[in-house]
Structure formats: C-alpha cells, structure tokens
Write a structure and sequence with these properties.
about 500 residues; alpha+beta; Glutamine Phosphoribosylpyrophosphate, subunit 1, domain 1; Rossmann fold; seven-stranded antiparallel β-sheet; 17 helices
Length: about 500
C-alpha cells in the first residue's frame, strides 16, 4: 500500500511544492521511500530512501520545476528496499511518461518473463510499476506510430491494454508531456483514487491522489472518484476526458476503511471517519449480544481505532479514556519492513498512563489483529500498568489469508488466527476476552457510506480473491519474495500452508 499525487497546473507555475505537501499528507501510507518527478523541457527527478522530510530539502526542491508533477511514498511489497525501486518512474523515449502507482501485480513474474526475458529490453528495478509503465508506453506507441499528437482515444486504448495484460490491484497516475495528466484504476477498483480541481488567479489546477486528504491540504475540491476500470485524461486544453474502458464488478478494499486511510479522507464517496464510528457502534451491540464481560473503561490502541473506540464506549455507556500515549515520531508498526523492526518499535511507540489502568478491567479496541505480536506486547504492557483484566475488540474479523493486492500479509502462518479458535487466539494474545467484528456487519458499515457499493474485497478475511486469477503457486512465490524483502526465510511450513 503506497500513496501518490499527480498535479497538472496552469502554464508557468511550479507544482512541486504542492506535490510535497500532498506526500506529507499520505506519509502514513509508506515510510520506505519518497520521490517527485516534474517536467519542463525535460524530466526533473528527486527520490530516495526515507521519509518525505528526509528525502527533500530546499536545494533539490528548487530544481523540481514545471507545471506537471507526480509524487509517491513507498511501502514495499513486491521488490526490495533498494533506492532503485523508489517511485515515480519515468521514460523519455519513445514517449515521455512519468508514473506512480499504489498496488501490486499478481502476474508480475509472468510479465517480466514475457516482456523482458530474452529481449534487448531491460528493467532498472524490481518494482512492478516499471512493468505497468512499459506496457502503457508500448501500447501508446503501437497505436499512434510517429508524427501524430496523442489523443484521448489513444490513452484509453493504452489503458485497455494495461487492463488486459496486467493482473492484480492498482491505481495509477501519469504525467505525459505535451499531452496532460492521466490516471486510471484496475478493473475491479480495488485500490482507491480520487480526482480534484481548483481555480486560482494563475488558472485551473487538476490533481488526483490515493486519498482525498491530499486534495484537501492543497485546497482542491474533490470532484469524483475514478471508477473501477476507468481512465481519465486532462488534456492540454484543460478538458477532462473520462471513460470506463473495462467493465467488472466494483470490489474496493475494505482494509482501506479499517486501517490504511486517514480518518479525514473520503474513498469512493465513503467517509473513513464515519465508517469507523459505525464499526464501533456495531461492536458495542455485538459485545452486549454475545454476553461478553462488562469492562470498567474503553480505550483505543492508537491511532486507527480511536473513532471506533469512542463510538463503542458511547454504545456501552462506559467511560472512554486515552490510556496509551503514542510517540508520533515512530512510524506505523504494521508497515515496518521486517518483524524485528515491528517488535522493537512497540515499546518506543506506546507508553501507558498507569493511573488509567490501575485496578481496572480494560477493554482495548484495535482496528485489526494481524500477526498478533504487537497486540500481545500491548496486552502485557497494560497488565504491567495495573489492569486487573484486559479485553480486546477488533473492528475487523480474523485475518486468515495472504493479500496479493498490496498489503504486506505474506503467508497464512503469519496470522495469529491461523489454526486457532477465538478462545485460543485470546489465550495466545494474553487477553481475558476477545471479540472480532462480524464480517457482514463490517461490510454493512462500509456500504452505509455509499449505497452504490455492492461488495468489498474481503480476500484477507475469506481467501476468496475477486480477480479470480490467484493461484497457490502465485501465493507461494509472493510469500517467498516478501520474506526475502524482510530479511527472513520462507520455511517449508510456510510454503506448504500457502499452497
């Protein structure tokens, strides 16, 4: 899961400053690398490993000139942590294009074999975006030949080729010099992308991003979400062209609403904040109906569960307290590059306010429980702070299946829920009671924000993949690649479970 922004500004302006501000707004989506590419008469590039504040400075920002720009923050799933995999990518010939994406290709190895093995063409990275870029540019070139201006029909054709050749989940933004701003979404619309506009004294501005908060911080009005299988072109005349080039059922990722997105964002016209409040209300009802023990206080495990915890406390008519203080200079634990980083970051990240725990039965609310390592350490921390009993509630169901679409869940053996019932999971985590939000209720909470959404991608909760092309062999290959990226080893047990 990554974050991006693309901007097409009026003639004579430099958009790099706004791209930078947008990347700061989606830093939560990727902490591994950051990059910006702009264009005047040539491409101007700055990217590297680290946070946005670490990669960019006054000197390198000054050379990022031009009114076409695209930026990216990276969280690695496919590929390693090398600087070569930092986005955006660009190609100057035969057609100049700069591109960034959020997502993951399920047929990456197949495409590499088809397009790059035993040919004169070579990849510069192990990032799957480079394959999308190649397929897109090749399709454009084949369509238009030479000496002709690129039109909207050409862009739509190229996107249709990408949809035909490239499997998986992805949202993409591209800047094409002398053409304009292009963005498109995978046929199932698994990954989010939102489009916005604004008017200033310099003229009309256009932007697309992986979350609406990116538009908010730069003063854009959210115009629409790019639909599943849809492509959008803003041309040189500043005219917006839209077309749904591939028809599939819309299956947006529910985990965006559960964990990844900022609460102040809208995705597919759904308020992340209101959805998380609905999660909490549903959890409160489920807690009572299940006959769960009565706690003295409800507390969130910050930050993603905060809104749900407050709603749950109101629903249970119990006090809400902030008993765990987060160090805001520590990144999100779930997207740390390896397990050692995750373990070491927990105590640095959270510290308990002991007077809120002493002698109390505490209900901790979390957005999800993946590997369980972080949750287990937090439960013990709360006990050490004086809690007499510790209960857990999760705003999502048990995670049981790897995600091939860009969330770093490599293998079934990593999930604490694998092979355990609810009581056994609670015992493993050290909790006195555990409740997961029912999956149907979770989906209903999401759909309440947009009645046009018929279903969400629930693959990580069910093992049913909406793209229909995920195989046991592919999952095993993905698990091996991700374990390698973390400096870990894919064991025979992990491989067999994935198969």
């Amino acid at each position: 899961m990554c974050g991006f922004i693309g901007i097409y500004g009026p003639e004579g302006v430099d958009v790099a400053g706004e791209v930078y501000e947008g990347l700061l707004a989606v830093q939560h989506r990727g902490q591994d690398a950051a990059g910006i590419t702009t264009f005047t008469n040539s491409f101007h590039v700055k990217k590297g490993l680290g946070l946005v504040l670490e990669v960019f400075n006054e000197n390198n920002m000054a050379r990022l000139r031009g009114n076409l720009g695209v930026g990216h923050v990276r969280y690695p799933t496919i590929g390693g942590n090398q600087g070569e995999d930092a986005q955006p990518f660009h190609i100057p010939y035969p057609i100049g294009v700069a591109m960034a994406h959020n997502g993951n290709l399920s047929n990456y190895e197949e495409l590499v074999e088809r397009y790059f093995k035993n040919t004169a063409t070579r990849l510069n990275s192990t990032c799957d975006l480079e394959v999308i870029l190649y397929v897109f540019v090749q399709a454009l070139q084949e369509r238009m030949g030479t000496g002709r201006k690129i039109l909207a029909e050409d862009v739509f054709y190229a996107v249709s080729v990408v949809h035909r050749e490239v499997r998986g989940a992805y949202s993409v933004v591209a800047t094409v010099p002398d053409v304009g701003l292009v963005c498109f979404r995978d046929p199932f619309g698994i990954k989010p992308i939102v489009f916005g506009e604004k008017e200033t004294e310099e003229g009309k501005w256009f932007a697309c991003a992986s979350e609406s908060v990116v538009l908010d911080v730069n003063g854009y009005t959210r115009s629409f979400d790019v639909g599943p299988g849809e492509a959008v072109l803003v041309d040189e005349a500043r005219e917006i062209h839209r077309r749904r080039v591939t028809e599939r059922d819309h299956r947006p990722c529910i985990f965006e609403l559960v964990y990844f997105a900022r609460p102040d964002s809208f995705l597919d016209d759904i308020s992340v904040y209101k959805t998380r409040k609905r999660f909490g209300e549903a959890l409160a009802n489920q807690w009572v109906e299940s006959g769960a023990p009565t706690p003295d206080v409800v507390m969130p495990i910050p930050d993603s569960a905060r809104d749900a915890a407050l709603s749950m406390a109101l629903g249970l008519d119990l006090p809400y307290r902030e008993g765990l203080v987060k160090n805001r200079y520590i990144g999100r634990t779930f997207i740390m590059p390896n397990q050692k980083s995750r373990r070491n970051s927990v105590r640095r990240k959270l510290n308990p306010i002991k007077i809120e725990f002493e002698g109390k039965k505490v209900l901790l609310v979390d957005d999800s429980i993946v590997r369980g390592n972080t949750c287990k350490r937090i439960v013990q921390m709360v006990r050490d702070a004086g809690a007499t009993e510790v209960y857990l509630a999760s705003t999502s169901p048990p995670l049981i299946a790897p995600c091939p679409y860009g969330v770093d869940m490599a293998s079934k053996t990593e999930f604490v829920a694998t092979g355990r019932n609810n009581d056994e999971i609670a015992e493993e985590l050290g909790a006195d009671h555990l409740l997961y939000l029912d999956r149907d209720l979770m989906n209903e909470c999401g759909k309440a924000g947009n009645e046009k959404i018929e279903d969400f991608c629930n693959a990580c909760f069910t093992g049913e993949y909406p793209t229909g092309d995920i195989t046991a062999e592919g999952l095993q290959s993905m698990a091996g690649d991700r374990c390698k990226n973390r400096g870990e080893t894919l064991t025979d047990e992990t491989a067999s479970v994935n198969a």
